[in-house]
Design goal:
The structure holds two protein chains of two kinds.
Chain A (H helix, E strand, L loop, with lengths): L5 H9 L4 E4 L2 E2 L10 H14 L5 H4 E3 L6 E3 L8 H18 L6 H21 L3 H15 L3 E4 L22 E5 L3 E12 L6 E4 L14 E6 L5 E5 L25 E12 L3 E4 L5 H14 L3 H20 L5 H26 L2 E2 L5 E2 L2 H11 L2 H13 L2 H4 L3 H5 L4 H7 L8 H16 L3 H10 L4 H10 L3 H11 L6
Parallel strand pairs in A: 1-10, 5-8
Antiparallel strand pairs in A: 1-2, 3-4, 6-7, 7-11, 8-9, 9-12, 10-11, 13-14
Helix pairs in contact in A: 1-2, 4-8, 4-9, 5-6, 5-7, 7-10, 8-9, 8-11, 8-15, 9-10, 9-11, 10-17, 11-15, 15-16
Chain B lengths: L2 E7 L9 H11 L4 E4 L8 E5 L17 E4 L2 H13 L1
Parallel strand pairs in B: 1-2, 1-3, 3-4
Helix pairs in contact in B: 1-2
Classes of the chains: A alpha+beta, B alpha/beta.
Chain lengths: 483, 87
């Protein structure tokens, strides 16, 4: 089964026995839970589109290890073209779902490991790369969704892992056995965790020898014994409990994050990809982060939806011809396409690593993600400006349906006489959803902090800015002789 | 005998028009002249590369040696219909 359908994916999740908690209770049926299900449907879209002729060119790839046609989310990039298609896939899926579709993070973990396991072997004569390829084949053959788990809770930020008062603030090995290792700790902000078949754990920072017990990377089935998922709340999340009301904004899709606890979890050796090679922790973080910063191409697709919604509400309001509205939509498009430039550029300027995997241009990937920490906020601000205050003062779907109040809403929320009031309410709710509701988690705060907060990108930009060559160019033009 | 036309889409990351609707339009307009098949089908007479924009990035490596007609916008589809009818 090289590629699952959306239906097969959903059924595959039903076979998992994950320990998921939400609102203080164990979630017995994760797949059908009304809060979680829209996020599952968003991941399912990555399976559905892979089977459509009109999207397969982006959504699928040829496996470099089996030669079979596979879902691109399980692919190791074999060319610049692959990297470009990955960026395009992000935009496509962002636009199709209007939210975070969660599956990129596992793809980025796989690609980073394909580089770093090879490099560790080159230095230490270990066999991680062979082990990794066997695992990769398993993922590809079963078309699995993987959670790429990097972010530790981190405790006191001024202290390295080994000096934390609570040693579990970073995931670490607590026991070594003949058959494998036992790990303990947690990973925070795990996007799509409970929609994943596998969880791939990586260190979260560069490490020194004192932290070698924390310099570990491994993969586990998402329902392995000892893994506990505690779902994160999202603004307006309980609107999903109200049924198919227009107040949800996005009627079809959503995202989720969870705190993932590893409570003394056993990992067999064949699923361990880094074990105390602390000098490669930073390399794994850097490569994963670069790939994942490229992955924020998805926000361009969500931006497409938001811009489309803003233009639509302007037309519904009868304001679309106003010059300031036109100017604002131009600005929104300018910002959104600038983001697109970044994700295409870092892919187009990619390079081949010793393992054969193609990597993005790390400087440009960081520049792209740094723009993502800013531009969606301005696009959202402009969308709210165009939408008007009704977006947040509008009565509920139930009031629209009520025989007592519905007629007043029909009368007083009407704008363009050709447009049903309900449609105007729907598009306003969608803008609300993306800019301050459940989808704002993905479009705004995740844009800020996901794949590293702004300062992390500034550090990487400073490391790779190649200032000496810029200075040399300046000195040459004004006649300063090189000493 | 109808011309067997294999439709090869680009990935559709940011199409400037509805590619699927255009193919439906072509299919209806030429229902007596062409048969739409999967592009990798045997005995395909022509590949119609349906690209969402002028980047025209549909991967055509698999179809080397075959006759390929490329469309990148809605007007191109009408040109394709005329070409088929003329022939």
């Amino acid at each position: 089964m090289p590629m699952m359908t959306a239906e097969q994916y959903e059924e595959s999740l039903r076979r998992l026995n994950m320990v998921v908690h939400m609102f203080g209770k164990r979630v017995k049926n994760v797949v059908d839970d009304p809060i979680i299900r829209p996020s599952m449907k968003a991941v399912a879209k990555t399976y559905e589109l892979a089977h459509l002729p009109e999207h397969e060119d982006i959504m699928t790839a040829k496996s470099h290890i089996t030669g079979k046609r596979i879902n691109r989310f399980t692919h190791i990039h074999q060319s610049i073209g692959d990297l470009v298609k990955k960026s395009k896939m992000g935009r496509l899926l962002g636009r199709e779902t209007g939210c975070c579709f969660q599956r990129c993070v596992g793809m980025d973990a796989l690609n980073a490991l394909s580089i770093v396991t090879f490099n560790i072997d080159e230095k230490y004569g270990t066999t991680y790369y062979k082990r990794f390829l066997k695992y990769l084949e398993y993922v590809q053959e079963n078309d699995l969704t993987c959670d790429g788990a990097m972010t530790d809770p981190k405790g006191d930020r001024s202290l390295p892992p080994h000096r934390q008062p609570d040693p579990d603030q970073y995931v670490h090995v607590v026991e070594e056995r003949k058959e494998g290792i036992v790990v303990r700790g947690a990973k925070a902000h795990q996007t799509g965790a409970v929609n994943s078949h596998e969880v791939i754990v990586m260190p979260t920072i560069a490490m020194r020898e004192e932290d070698k017990d924390y310099a570990i990377s491994f993969a586990l089935p998402s329902d392995a014994e000892g893994i506990i998922y505690i779902m994160g709340r999202q603004s307006c999340d309980t609107r999903k409990l109200e049924g198919d009301t227009i107040d949800r904004g996005n009627m079809l899709f959503g995202g989720h994050e969870a705190l993932v606890v590893f409570d003394n979890v056993f990992v067999p050796w064949d699923r361990v990809f880094m074990y105390k090679e602390y000098d490669f922790a930073g390399q794994l973080v850097e490569n994963f982060a670069a790939y994942h910063r490229q992955s924020y191409a998805c926000k361009v697709g969500v931006g497409d939806v938001l811009i489309g919604a803003a233009q639509t509400v302007a037309e519904y309001n009868g304001a679309a011809k106003a010059s300031h509205i036109k100017d604002k939509t131009v600005e929104m498009n300018h910002l959104n396409e600038t983001l697109y430039c970044g994700c295409i550029a870092c892919a187009s300027e990619g390079h081949k690593e010793p393992s054969g995997t193609y990597n993005v241009n790390i400087l440009l990937a960081n520049v792209h993600k740094h723009n993502v920490t800013r531009f969606p906020f301005e696009i959202a601000r402009l969308a709210q400006d165009i939408a008007g205050g009704l977006m947040v003062t509008m009565p509920s779907d139930k009031d629209l349906r009520s025989p007592e109040t519905g007629r007043w809403l029909e009368k007083y929320l009407k704008a363009n006489s050709d447009i049903p009031t309900e449609n105007r309410m729907r598009i306003l709710r969608l803008i609300e959803n993306i800019t301050l509701g459940t989808a704002a988690v993905g479009y705004l705060t995740e844009s800020m902090h996901g794949a590293g907060s702004p300062q992390a990108q500034r550090i990487m930009i400073s490391r790779r800015e190649n200032m000496q060559e810029k200075q040399r160019a300046a000195r040459k033009l004004c006649g300063i002789e090189e000493s | 005998m109808k011309l067997r036309v294999g439709i090869k889409y680009c990935g559709g990351c940011n199409p400037e028009y509805d590619r699927v609707a255009i193919v439906d339009h072509i299919k209806q307009s030429l229902q007596d002249e062409i048969e739409i098949v999967r592009p990798e089908s045997e005995d395909v007479d022509l590949i119609l590369a349906v690209n969402g924009c002028s980047t025209a990035c549909a991967d055509l490596k698999f179809f080397e040696g075959l006759k390929i007609h490329t469309i990148t916008n809605m007007e191109d589809s009408d040109k394709f219909i005329k070409v088929i009818r003329r022939n």
